[in-house]
Design brief:
By secondary structure, the chain is α/β, with parallel strands linked by helices. It contains six helices and five strands; from the N terminus they run βαβαβαβαβαα. Strand 1, helix 1 and strand 2 form a beta-alpha-beta unit.
Length: about 150
């Protein structure tokens, strides 16, 4: 299993405060964090930050990614337009774990308006530390991409 070192992170204005906190949390845990914005609470368009975050993961410049917006839907929909991305909306630790174990998700999408910051940190930690199980799940994951 490849060691996870580089994390891409991005989000819109609704996710800005969580993103700031998560960057510190990740750096304190020893990860190299690549911040794709936004860097203020001013209203912005989430695709402007989700696309570069997804591209960094898809191109292998970062190992995994974190996207944050109000509901997590906008950033997840945007990131999943990339063929090499499997972005999962997570709202509890078990979902974050299963997204990695069963779906080989490579970006966690967090709904900042619906989860606490402490839960967001727990989910990110779980997501980054949980490996893909492979096995029967590999065949399913291999059928996801459109060819």
């Amino acid at each position: 299993m490849k060691e996870i070192k580089k994390i891409a992170i991005g989000g819109d204005h609704a996710g800005f405060q969580y993103k700031k906190e998560l960057i510190s949390f990740l750096k304190d845990a020893g990860y190299e964090v690549h911040n794709f914005g936004t860097d203020s609470a001013d209203s912005v368009d989430y695709p402007d930050f989700a696309h570069p975050t997804a591209t960094a993961v898809e191109d292998g410049k970062c190992d995994l990614g974190v996207l944050i917006c109000g509901s997590a839907n906008g950033v997840a929909i945007t990131a999943n337009k990339h063929q090499g991305i499997r972005a999962a909306i997570c709202w509890e630790k078990e979902i974050a774990s299963l997204a990695r174990q069963h779906n080989d998700a490579n970006i966690i999408c967090i709904p900042a308006r619906f989860v606490s910051l402490d839960l967001a940190k727990e989910m990110v930690k779980t997501f980054l530390e949980t490996p893909f199980e492979g096995g029967r799940h590999s065949n399913r994951v291999n059928k996801i991409a459109c060819k």
